[in-house]
Amino acid sequence: MKFDSFKYSFKEALKSIKRNKTLSIASIATVTATLFLLGAITLGVANADKLITQLGSMVEVKIYLKEGISDNNKNAIENKIKEVDGIDKITFQSKEDALKDVKEQMNDELGQLTSGFEDNNPFPASFTVNVKEPLVVDKVVSSIKDMNGIDEIKDARSIIAKISKLTDSFKIGAAVAFVVFIMISLFLIGNTIKITVFTRKKEIGIMKYVGATDWFIRWPFIIEGMILGILGAVISVVALGFIYAIIINNLSADTLFGFDLVGISYILKVIVWEFLGCGVFIGAIGSIISMRKFLKV
């Protein structure tokens, strides 16, 4: 498209938006809501993935040993664990250390409940195995589960699996809602363009009569839709950034149990481009669909 043609199309698009203010505002509001939902979904998924990653790095295997296990069996278990690739750290805790930890975690009053345990200590010795990634847990468990001297093996894989399942369900539900909002946006932008076409029907006929090409006639409507989409994108990214900044600033580390949220920079690096791209796409497609059906040029 030549610059003069673009300049003409752009001016006509702005005139049309001013002429149909109510429908234009409704279209912008719907695009804003749609993209805000997309941004909320993107942030939700990014934070969920980050949570799973952080949980994965914290996954540990707790191996409780049987009473009276021999040193040879204990050393054999430890050596077997060390053979597994992806082990970050192995920590042995004796029965005495386990009892000491329990006492330290209790206040003086509750600590009296453990009096006498020194002679008859009920807490087992154990290994705590920290792994570099959750997949290593399976290797650790399968390598030692049949060895002598092991009483019980515990790990947090089931918790991570449940969080992953919830995240997947959230993604599916959010995607459905997003598609619905996309359809509404296309419908409203299409209606806005349709009304513009009808109000300029006579002018379009004259333009066609004097030799204007199909695309010369179409471009003002396409640009109008793109402008509506971009305006909705700008408003939504500002609103999302403002609200997310408030959420981050008002959530303490204790509230999040030590987990980190995706930073506000994520919106600037990723979401803003998603918004602009989707805004242009929604506006352009809404205009093209409307013209194909109602504008015979």
Automatic annotation (TrEMBL):
Residues 176-291 form the ABC3 transporter permease C-terminal domain. It is a multi-pass membrane protein. It is found in: Cell membrane. The keyword Endoplasmic reticulum does not apply. InterPro entries: ABC3_permease_C, FtsX, FtsX_ECD, FtsX_firmicutes-type. The chain crosses the membrane at residues 172-193, 226-247, 267-289. Signal peptide: none annotated. It comes from the Bacteria. Gene3D superfamilies: 3.30.70.3040. GO terms for biological process: cell division. Keywords: Cell cycle, Cell division, Cell membrane, Membrane, Transmembrane, Transmembrane helix. The keyword GTP-binding does not apply. Belongs to the ABC-4 integral membrane protein family. FtsX subfamily. This is Cell division protein FtsX. It comes from Clostridium sulfidigenes. The lineage of its organism: Bacteria, Bacillati, Bacillota, Clostridia, Eubacteriales.
